[in-house]
TrEMBL record:
Keyword Transmembrane helix applies: yes
Organism: Streptomyces bauhiniae
Name under which the protein is recorded: DUF4235 domain-containing protein
TM region(s), chain numbering: 15-32, 44-65
Keywords: Membrane, Transmembrane, Transmembrane helix
């Protein structure tokens, strides 16, 4: 298997899934700051927006976790 084919399969690998999960979790920092700012300014609309973003992050992490469980032993980069 060539290096290019391995690179193309990275997104469907265990390592790629972990990297995606880390990126998604890192975005939670921005949402936490947005919630803190919305609360201090008592801005209900920004608070709703931040809550919707938080729900999207949780959903994204759940989907990535499910994908990680599906990968199991048939990892693209290992075989």
């Amino acid at each position: 298997m060539s290096a290019l084919n391995k690179a193309k399969g990275f997104k469907q690998s265990r390592s790629g899934t972990y990297l995606s999960m880390a990126g998604t979790a890192f975005s939670a920092v921005g949402v936490a700051k947005q919630i803190k700012k919305a609360r201090s300014e008592q801005d209900t609309l920004r608070l709703i927006d931040a809550a919707a973003s938080a729900v999207a992050i949780v959903t994204g992490l759940a989907i990535l976790y499910r994908e990680l469980k599906r990968l199991g032993d048939d990892d693209v980069l290992l075989g």
